[in-house]
Fold each of these.
Amino acid sequence: MRLILACIVLIGVWHAVAASQMLPAFVLPGPPAVVQVLARDHQLLATHAMTTAQEVIAGLALGLGFGAATALAMMLCAPLRWLVQPILTVSQAVPVFVLAPVLTIWFGYGPAPKIAMVVLLVFFPVASGLYDGLRATPQPVLDLARIAKASSWRELWLLRLPHALPYLGASLRVSVTYAPMGAVIGEWVGASKGLGYLMLLANARMKTDLMFAALVVIVAMTLTLVTVTDRLLRRVQM
Amino acid sequence: MTSHGASDHCGAAQWGLHGDITLHGQALIQGLDLPLCRGWTCLLGRSGCGKSTILRLMAGLPVAAQWHGTRRAPDRIGWMAQSDLLQPRLDLLGNVTLAERLAGRMIARDQALGALQQVGLGALASRRPDALSGGQRQRVALARALIANAPLVLLDEPFSALDPVSRSQMQELAYRQLAGRHVVLVTHDPVEALRLGAQVWLIEEHRLIAQPALAQSQEKDLRDPSDPQLTQAAAALLHRLRSAGAPHPAPTPYHKGCDTCG
């Protein structure tokens, strides 16, 4: 409810600034113009949005899988922990976006470098968040495992993982807000499809209203993703 | 009174803990000689005296202190801690079977249900722990300790956070359900120690000192908490605890979740 209200206020301000004619329409098109483009070019926008959405979903799934597997493996294998833990710490200081051109060189112009971008954005928060959560299981709870002479695998699965799920949930909530941005940046660097590509195309032809329409779709996609993720995570108490 | 007083009652005890415990280079317990007899052995002492450390050593759990000595313990041990350690994502049935699943043993649903029924919570098997009161939660923890059929059950102040009525009821329930097993209870409540203990040990000035236990009036039933003989003996013990002075040369700061400090 508050989200909708905030959107209305934002659009209102945008409309007021655009209507005041301080900036020419090809620099800042007003909401009505953008809505017109959204209606007229909805098929074009939908096609490109689908491409971006697929990259985002694939990247999220792979990043979550790799990240969770890494955190679990780190708990079970001390040498791996020794090796990977500093990397996870440092990774939080590295702006992953700067890797986009490199990824394009490595993976070409197809969906692969965009998915890789999203994977990198999701992997590090998921791996470090889940790992922190697994480590944060209270000692008295772990006493149960020691008394039962539980294997480290059982301790991990039955005690540590359930305790770490809220940490994983927090990481996922952060990740999904960045994921569409990652895909779009990947598309800026080099693509023939996707909302990022459409934005660059519109920009080059001074079709600012189309650019704004693509922007609106990206924001809507991100908000949907964030809301759906939050609902799903709440349902499983994460 | 010597620290050998209680071992006379059960002859050559099958299990027990012997040795010296030091913490930060200072003696925590000297000349520890704790034989465990069938029935309830209660360790009574003030916070920081090392009674929880003894229990954790007996359980084979890590402690902050150093220990040199011998430990004789059975393969399976039942455990109840100060907090119930119930897992919020599991229903009561899942919580009761947790210790066994951790041990890699399969548990029949009927057996788990039976354990819950024994503690009077059979009807709530599919509830989550957050729907329970503190007393009910500790009953689930008791069921979890019962189900392994461990011959030795270690209790680290499990009743201390309960209200007086729940506490006395919980003592009676645990006493009935754990009959025939070796039980060690750590407590700072003289009434609790005297009510339950066939062997009562006081930890005073870094030593374990045997205390005369009250003979149970009946074999199966515990004394009423207001029984005059019990309250009188408890008052005498409390007086002794009070007059003993500081329990520890360098008291360990107590913080929640630190079971090694108690």
Amino acid sequence: MGMMKIPMIAHEPDFMIHGVLKYHAFGQELWISDTTVGAWIITAVLLLFGFIVSRKLKHVSESDTPGLLQSGLEIAMEALENMTAGILGANNRRFMNYIGTIFLFILLCNLSGLVGLRAPTADFGVTFLLGLFTFFIVNYQGLKNRGVRHFTSLFEPIPVLFPINVIGEFANPISISLRLFANLLSGVIIIGLWYGMMPWFMKIVLPAALHVYCDLFSGAIQTYVFCMLTMVYINDKME
Amino acid sequence: MNISGQDFIYGCSAIGAGLALIAGIGPGVGQGIAAGQGAAAVGRNPGAKSDITSTMLLGQAVAETTGLYGLVVAIILMFVKPFG
């Protein structure tokens, strides 16, 4: 038996992932969940934004005065360039696309709690996939740049440390994905508890403070940390 | 009062979840040290305030991880019920 219902609480606090649509594939029972729908919405928003902006900026000539959109995008690109160059140095051009893409995706996912979606990054499936991307990129770069030394470096500084080095390599994607997931999940739980357990007059203005901390502040910092750590791991394998 | 084996496991899981959150002590101390050192650094060199703040926040966000592992373990014990 589950827990007993406590009559003082009006609504059960709700912060779980809900299924929207059930379907069968590969002999499994699968769900299209809140996470999937949220990720679709965010992808659609990003695609639409990219499409409209590229249409608008296609016919800009050098003699034109840059508008608000162009100036803003140039500032953002410069910030991205500085962020990547700060860690990757001269190699930053090759990774700017990827870092910028995951930065925008994770940022929008983290902020989507503000518009009433359940943040897709508060699902371990999403963050673990992002961690796996990092893992494969890091190891591909290691193999490409260092060849056999990618494997022999596991035996440094002394061969006895080989198992620990291997565990350390496999712990990277798990640790960065769990960090992002747990931060977002804690925000979702705190906000869900507040909305589920407080009387109505506490739900009017006060949750704004929680949203500012859990969604805006924590979300932005964790996005930055995820991209930074991805770049640090890549940079470790560069030479 | 009769407590079935299942209820006993749920009770122990709840106690374990509470104990898992002792992990919150470490990041608290660590983040406090980072913030204190950050404040001292700004006091010595107020011109580098933005650099110091961003470095401090990055370090704090990484130091938070162990506490969040505790949170994940607690949530798994409470809601996924691996032993029930």
